[in-house]
Amino acid sequence: MNEQIWRLSVRTAGTSLDALSGAMYLAGYEGIEILPEAGDGDDHVTVRAYAVARHGLEELARVVAAVPGCLVGRIEEIEVEDWAEGWKKHFQPQEIGATLVVLPPWVSPKHHPDRMPVVINPGHAFGTGTHATTRLVLEALERARPHVPLRGPVVDLGTGSGILAIAAAKLGLAPVTAIDVDPEALYEAQENARANAVHLLVRTVEGDVQDVPDGARLVLANLSAPVHRSIAARLAPRLQPGGRALLSGLLADETDGIVAAWPAGWEHRVAVLEEWALVELVAPS
Hints:
By secondary structure, this protein is an alpha/beta fold.
């Protein structure tokens, strides 16, 4: 018998898509696909969110119902294989920054000869390069790469699909440790790492940062603002002098609170894409 998964469909105007995506990201989901609707002058799209438990989508439906211009559809049970095949239609290559391209495994990298391929097989774990928060970290990683200290661990905290950890490894940073609370996410991260011929150290934690190695030279973390604030005081001492933290998963108006949660004296800068933001912090040398 095939594994089952739940799907919620939401119809929205294209002008409301960013707000809808933001609400979905904050509420939590296992995967998402966006289906444009054909029609003269019709800019509506259907957004489908997926979860392994129905109650997760019931809560998501309540959140999305408050987004202007959104029409919430029904929650339905489907087979995982149907979801996976749907991804093949809608998960397209994403060129990111100056050198990276995120590809599904059924697309050949030869179509992007001047870019470094990061192959991600979309599954239950978050991180396919389509969301602004992921793009922000990848772009910041590419920019920061020449300035990262030469030695020390690299950590992807809340790795999901492993996309950030894999990109760091392909940019020449090692060793890379991928940490998550979800063993299934770590399994998918390992599978994606194999597809990219890179090695990741993986660790499961229970909502803490105790497994972040001391002396880290780079920490990548695409998490929610409350989580960022709660771990800042414990995470900061684990970075070496000159080490960097790239923190995403933030709305643009949440960045001041994140900077304030970190120790005084750290250099910081903010990058914004759509309504989302990334904070880059550099430990005093």
